């Protein structure tokens, strides 16, 4: 649980820093334009909800699944990969990327089920 709290706090600090100091948003070799576009597409509450499932034992709510699908797969993949690449998490990166893909598939399924036919 402590590791999940550190991840969530790190993400919030990263988002705040990236909006206040754009040069801190991403490392030079990352797709800065995509990062900047993605970080504003999802609410902080849903971002934390998704992070808690990918990096912990949380469950993504239905409204957050809908936000995630609207955000798009490229954004979801970019944001989770960015967090999973942190030195404290890199050892379990493949597990986190698998969970990222599972969350995406689940949310697409939920969103399709809720869409009007």
Architecture overview:
α3 (44-55) crosses α6. The protein has one domain (26-114). It has helices at residues 2-20, 32-39, 44-55, 62-71, 73-84, 93-114. The chain is built from six helices and no strands. The chain is 71% helix and 0% strand. The longest helix has 22 residues, at 93-114. By secondary structure, the protein is mainly alpha-helical.
Strand content: under 5%
Order of helices and strands: HHHHHH
Low-pLDDT windows of residues: 15-26
What is the mean predicted local confidence, pLDDT?
78
Number of strands: 0
Q: Report the total helices.
A: 6
Signal peptide: 1-25
Organism: Brassica campestris (Field mustard)
Protein name: Prolamin-like domain-containing protein
Keywords: Signal
Would you kindly provide a brief summary of this structure?
By secondary structure, this protein is mainly alpha-helical.
Topology:
Elements: H1 2-20, H2 32-39, H3 44-55, H4 62-71, H5 73-84, H6 93-114
What keywords describe this structure?
117 residues, mainly alpha, Prolamin-like domain-containing protein, signal, Prolamin-like
């Amino acid at each position: 649980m402590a590791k999940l709290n550190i991840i969530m706090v790190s993400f919030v600090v990263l988002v705040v820093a990236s909006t206040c100091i754009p040069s801190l948003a991403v490392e030079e070799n990352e797709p800065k334009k995509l990062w900047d576009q993605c970080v504003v597409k999802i609410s902080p509450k849903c971002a934390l909800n998704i992070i808690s499932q990918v990096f912990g034992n949380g469950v993504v709510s239905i409204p957050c699944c809908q936000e995630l699908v609207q955000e798009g797969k490229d954004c979801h993949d970019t944001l989770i990969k960015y967090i999973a690449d942190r030195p404290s998490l890199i050892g379990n990166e493949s597990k986190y990327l698998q969970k990222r893909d599972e969350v995406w598939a689940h949310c697409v399924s939920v969103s399709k089920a809720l869409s009007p036919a």
